[in-house]
Amino acid sequence: MDTGEEFGPWLARQLKLAGKTQAELADELQLTRAAVSAWITGRSTPRPTVMTDIAKALGTDVGTVHTRTTDTQAGLPVTWYHRPGYHDGGRDMGNAAAFAFDADVQVLARETCQNSLDERLTENGRPVRVRYTLHELTGEALDSFREAILWNDLFPHYSAVSEAAANQKVGRVVDAGVRDMYEKGRLVLLRVDDYNASGLIGDDYADGKFAAVVRRQLESLKSGPAAGGSYGLGKATLWATSALGLVLINSTLSVPHEGRTERRVIGRLELPWREVDGEPYAGPAWFGRPDPDSPGAMVARSWWADEETVASLHLTRESDEPGTSFLIVGAHDVASLESRSDADEESGSVEDGDEDTRDIRKMHGRLVEALGRDFWAAMTGGGSRLPLLEVSVRAFQNGKEVVPEKQVDPSVEQPARTRALRAHYEGNTVDRLTEAGQVAARNVPLKLPLSGGSHGTLGTHQAVLLVTEAEGDRDGDGGKNQVHSLRGNRMTVKRAGVSRLPLGTNPFQAVLLVGEAAGETAPFAKEAEEFLRAAEPPEHDRWGQTEELTLRWSPSAYRRISALTAEVNNAVRELVARPKRSSSREGGEAVRKALTVRTRPKAKAPAGPVVPVLDTLDATVGDDGEWRITAEVSIPRGDEIVPMVPVAQLDVRSGGRPKLEWAELVAVEGCEVEDGTLRFTPGVRRAKFQGFTDVSSHPVRTTLTRLVLELRAGKGE
Q: Per residue in 409-435, is it b (16+ CB within 10 Å) or e — as a string?
């Protein structure tokens, strides 16, 4: 017969749960205390006949004692533990970490899938499998689920939050979630399952992955520099996506805890401070088995649930493969309202109050879109490189499938980029694009700085740039002529356009592989991973100036990333430029002779240097919040043209205008850029240049400012 936990540790825990001592069990069994102690320490095991007596003493069946795959139901029952209010009167009106992200299933997909990639078991070489399941409950199915989570015990706390909702942002969200469930008689569950992942290993309270996710905030225990997360904020998206602030967890462990691996269950509730029956509560609550070792056995800890319990909680996993299932209770997708088309708004097809943030079909589509956009590279393999990820999405109503499970296919969602990455893995790239379907590859340097503020370069990491033609309307990104940048876990970190493309450039898509994504044997790959990981904000959607980058390297370390961007843009422009066609010399000479051009005598140029004047300016805000400008300059006639320095400033009502730094300043025509100074070609009357400001030098968000551009002679001081 298959057994679970070792008998000694299992029996010791059952005695704690039942509130019995070893001596009391020995008296009931009419044995010596030494005999029970020997079982606990593993020096001996009881005879089969004694197993029956132990089962009676613990109030369970003999099969449970033999298999030890679950705890007995004797003693302390599963319940909710609400953290008491602080003795000093302090109040938390919600989990601040949840405000780092929107209630958006696309953000949830990005953060949870990234976490699963980071926890992938690498020894077997297989990908981590992630499945998203949307499940709408109504009627009896809803009633049964509420009974399983002890809703009657939770309701007074939700009522207290609703009463104070007008003064609390979190309270208003929770109140709306509760009202939607009662008024519309429904509840949307969103479950995220991963397989071939580590699972929530470790103790309930001590350092480990379990405590980092369930007990703590702002703690990240990712292993390896290629991991995507680093702030410990990503898990907050789970609770942010729940209108009820409630997430249930079932984990299968890759490393046994208490001799067990399957069905480690716990729930966590995030509410603001509240007062129930005169008792203040701090905010969070946990759903679990009371811990006998806690004062008064009040604190709830995880427990090893049976199959019937996990089924009633909608947490049944499909296999015993390690990984974790997160069930978001009351899932909603507020950001889906922004996806409505302008035509819908203008036609009035969507009336105020008709918006539904809990439409499981719409949520299904948005999940597929986000997963294909952000993780296409992780799902792509080729040559000796295997995919790191497999992901699917499905939807149910009361147990009946209403949207079939859809396996996200990177070649469908991102066909051009997938083709480029596979060609790189299979060694089928070219130096220059000459035919349709080709993939051009080019190395671009990332010069890594020395840490600790030291001057100099640690070494040069060679990133890999891949460029191929776009696939027309099939590209699921919504924008062509873009570079997708990614590192070791192959999640798209940065999406950016390329400036100053040659006229007539064919639509293309590009991929930049940096760090271990460029190859684990690439020089300074691990150092590049560490550097770029520190340059990512909590959203992990760009590389730039961050506090960690400043503290570990220097305030100017981000300029190495700006230099990489400039190298990438230059390489892309060179790879996509059409070859110049050589014209017939004879034909050109014949045309020249056939033309008669009347010219006026040149006016006498004024003596002395002339000063160029800013003529026209076009400015927009880029995807990363930078100002993107294109300026034309008018130049008077003269023998000498004064060099000019473009200076970007923010318009303010009083005082000096804050100066912005340039991330990139490039000449378009009639001039050259040298160390931020425009030098004009002799004899030109007009010149054009482009510039992109450095977002890290912006004192406030770009959308709240106005830009002033000046041309100053000399160094622009």
A: ebbebbbbbbbbbbbbbeeebeeebee
CA atoms within 13 A on the CB side of 79: 12
What is the residue-wise DSSP string for 399-413? TEEEEEEEE--HHHH
Residues 322 and 196: their CA atoms lie apart, in Å, by: 5
Enter the tokens of residue 353: 């109050």
Mean pLDDT calculated for residue range 544-571: 89
DSSP 98: G
Written as six digits, the tokens of 339 are 């996806």
pLDDT in tens, 1-13: 455 778 888 888 8
Class of residue 583 by CB neighbours under 10 A (exposed 0-12, middle 13-18, buried 19+)? exposed
CA dist., res. 457 & res. 380, Å (int): 33
Q: Specify whether the CB–CB gap between 335 and 102 falls below 8 A.
A: yes
- Per the listing, tokens 């946990």 go with 286
Distance CA 684, CA 669 (A): 10
How many distinct helices (H) and strands (E) make up the chain?
Answer: 20, 28
pLDDT at 366 over 80: yes
- Comparing CA positions, the residue from 423, 695, 665 lying closest to residue 558 is 695
Largest Cα separation within the chain, whole Å, is 124
Q: Which of 313, 212, 194, 321 is nearest to 262 (CA)?
A: 321
Q: Following DSSP, what letter does each residue of 129-191 receive, concatenated?
A: EEEEEEEEEEHHHHHHHHHHTTHHHHHHHHHHHHHTGGG-HHHHHHHHHHHHHHHHTEEEEEE
Alpha carbons 66 and 49: distance in angstroms, whole number: 11
pTM over 0.70: yes
How far apart (Å, rounded) are the C-alpha atoms in residues 453 and 550? 8
Cβ count near 90 (within 10 Å): 9
- Of the candidates 46, 44, 23, 45, the residue with the CA atom closest to the CA atom of residue 33: 23
Pairing of strands 279-290, 274-276: antiparallel
Answer left, alpha or beta for residue 242, where phi above 0 means left and psi between -120 and 50 means alpha. Answer: beta
Cα–Cα distance, 270 to 251 (Å, whole number)? 20
Distance (Å, rounded) from C-alpha 50 to C-alpha 27? 13
- Residue 644 class from Cβ within 10 Å (0-12 exposed, 13-18 middle, 19+ buried)? buried
Task: Give CA–CA dist 200/249, Å, rounded.
Answer: 9
* Contact call for residues 340 and 350 (beta carbons, < 8 A): yes
CA torsion sign, 317 to 237 to 543 to 438? Answer: positive
Instruction: Answer whether residue 353 shows pLDDT above 60.
Output: no
Rounded to an integer, what distance in angstroms lies between the CA atom of residue 82 and that of residue 282? 8
Q: What contacts 24+ positions apart, CB below 8 Å, involve 699-705?
A: 699/650, 699/658, 700/650, 701/625, 702/621, 702/625, 702/626, 702/627, 703/621, 703/625, 705/650, 705/651
pLDDT tens sequence across 454-469:
888 999 999 999 999 9
* CA 300/CA 77 separation, integer angstroms: 10
Q: What is the DSSP letter of 231?
A: S
pLDDT at 592: 43
Distance, in Å, from the CA atom of 374 to the CA atom of 114, rounded to the nearest integer, reads 10
Using the Cα atoms of residue 270, residue 274, residue 279 and residue 280 in order, give the sign of their dihedral: positive
CA distance 377 to 515: 14
DSSP structure string for 602-635: PPPPPSSEE--EEEEEEEEE-TTS-EEEEEEEE-
Whole-angstrom distance, CA of residue 108 vs CA of residue 122: 24
- Among 32-41, 136-145, 415-424, the minimum mean pLDDT is found in 32-41
Phi, psi torsion values for 359, nearest 5 degrees? -80, 110
